Amino acid sequence: MSEIQQNKPEKEGTAQYDLKKTIVMVGMMGAGKTAIGRALAARIGVPFLDSDAEIEAAASRTVPEIFARDGEAFFRARETQVISRLLDAQRGVLSTGGGAFLAEVNRRNISERGVSVWLNADLDLLWQRVRHKDTRPLLRTPDPRATLAEIYDARVPLYALADVSVKSLPDLSIEEMADRVMATLIADRSDVLEICDA
């Protein structure tokens, strides 16, 4: 499996990959969806998209500003529209916000038109990653650690519905986690990702 260990994008490496469906990264805030998704897209040699970034660009506001001005319901409606549009675009790797996969319509759209990959990080690891950031509107509470735990407990059963689950390990780099995701997809989901013969 030496191809999986390539540290360069497809165009520079020896491995060639056939991506048949968009890979959609899902999971909690702090799980690494954007960083690992970006590294995965570079490995495969496909576009990387981020639904939150697309929403921000369309609204000319940050996600926290949209939450503050328009509320979560408005944001979630825009999120569903953007995810649907991105799934219809060129195949690639799509990172979604932590709440996106909670909506049944999003889960259905992703599974029908792509493949959902849950980055399964435990609560302690997530807290270590998000505790010093003020960009998480849902954690702007008197006890953000307790809030994160409540969100985690509520969301994990829904994340567990993802097509593929990859455990996030704290001692692995972003690149190593991208390799784990790629190896899992190649081994278990040849309908999504294959190594092409050179």
- DSSP summary: helix tally: 8
State the distance separating the first and last CA atoms. Answer: 14 Å
Domain unit count: 1
Q: Name the overall outline.
A: globular
List keywords for this structure.
single chain, 198 residues, alpha/beta, Rossmann fold, five-stranded parallel sheet, two-stranded antiparallel ribbon, 48% helix, globular, disordered N terminus
Architecture overview:
By secondary structure, the protein is of the alpha/beta class. The protein has one domain (19-196): Rossmann fold (3-Layer(aba) Sandwich), CATH 3.40.50.300. 48% of the residues lie in helices and 15% in strands. The strands form two sheets. A five-stranded parallel β-sheet has the order 3-4-2-5-6, with helices on both faces. Strands 1-7 form a two-stranded antiparallel ribbon. The protein is globular, with a radius of gyration of 17 Å. The two termini are 14 Å apart.
Q: In brief, what are we looking at here?
A:
The chain has helices spanning 33-44, 51-59, 63-70, 72-88, 104-113, 123-130, 144-159, 174-188; strands spanning 16-19, 22-26, 48-50, 93-95, 114-120, 164-167, 193-196. The protein is α/β, with parallel strands linked by helices and 198 residues long.
SSE blueprint:
Layout: E1 16-19, E2 22-26, H1 33-44, E3 48-50, H2 51-59, H3 63-70, H4 72-88, E4 93-95, H5 104-113, E5 114-120, H6 123-130, H7 144-159, E6 164-167, H8 174-188, E7 193-196
Parallel strand pairs: 2-4, 2-5, 3-4, 5-6
Antiparallel strand pairs: 1-7
Helix pairs in contact: 1-8, 2-4, 3-4, 4-5
